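Class, discuss our next protein.
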Amino acid sequence: MKRNQLSIRTIVAIGIGAAVFIILAKFAAIPSPVPNTSIQTSYAFLALMAVVFGPIAGGLIGLIGHALNDAISYGSVWWSWVVVSMIVGLLIGLASKKIDIESGIFNTKKIITFNVVQVIAQGIGWFLIAPALDILIYAEPANKVFLQGLFAGVSNMVTVGVIGTLLLAGYAKTRSRSNSLTREL
């Protein structure tokens, strides 16, 4: 197998991850007072998948999951936000080697690393890129899109910080510790 090819495991994870992202975005979103914006639990799952499978999987799950959810839910795709979902998955995935969740260790240092990375990724995506693309692509009013981006970014930071951290802690407990001869359950 070539070094740059995706493994079958990663390809399957992308497909399943995108499907779960859609389900969570459609059925586990909490309405918000900001128009066309909701509190999304799907980003906590995206963060888990990005840390477990890396940046390519994280980016593609965000891209495919968000694009298909928009197409199914609204009949058209809002590309500016889809691009941000891809970027958030990619950036969180870039920290996967540093976090090394497969070691079975998800200690305070790794929790802090994960949350610093996800807050930076979400901030770049939702505070800067999404509003800028909304203005450039869709000629949306700046005050509207910056409010939406601010709300989406902060709510995603909180949901990923809480739910994403819990998902990663639970996942780490299913992995063998790197210094252990037995598997922890």
